[in-house]
């Protein structure tokens, strides 16, 4: 669940905005443990996407990736 401060900060994010959906259902075995599978997958996909992000936008992209991971 998102913290209220995080939700309130969403309108302040600069465009373009990357949106993602992470299935963090704790009932799933892969969502539990020290390193949930969804984070591993997210980081792997973020690295692939980063290769296509324009150089000027890359710092913003990586900042948003850090917020999630």
Description of the structure:
The chain is mainly alpha-helical and 69 residues long. The protein has one domain (14-68). It contains three helices and no strands. It has helices spanning 4-9, 37-50, 58-68. The chain is flat. The two termini are 14 Å apart. The relative contact order is 0.14. The model has no long low-confidence stretch (mean pLDDT 84).
Short key terms for the protein model shown above:
single chain, 69 residues, mainly alpha, 3 helices, flat
Concise overview:
This protein is mostly helical and 69 residues long.
List the SSEs and their pairings.
Elements: H1 4-9, H2 37-50, H3 58-68
Output the number of helix runs.
3
Report on the biggest sheet: none
Low-confidence stretches: none
| SS content category | mainly alpha
Strand content: under 5%
Q: Compute the average pLDDT.
A: 84
Note the overall shape: flat
Q: What gap, in angstroms, lies between the N and C termini? A: 14 Å
In the residues, how many domains can be counted? Answer: 1
Radius of gyration: 13 Å
What sequence of helices (H) and strands (E) makes up the elements? Answer: HHH
Q: How much helix is in the residues? A: 40-55%
- The tally of beta strands, per DSSP, is 0
């Amino acid at each position: 669940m998102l913290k209220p401060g995080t939700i309130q900060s969403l309108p302040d994010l600069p465009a373009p905005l990357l949106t993602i959906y992470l299935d963090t259902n704790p009932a799933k075995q892969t969502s539990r443990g020290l390193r949930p599978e969804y984070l591993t997958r997210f980081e792997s996909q973020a690295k692939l996407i980063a290769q296509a992000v324009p150089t000027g936008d890359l710092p913003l992209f990586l900042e948003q990736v850090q917020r999630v991971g």
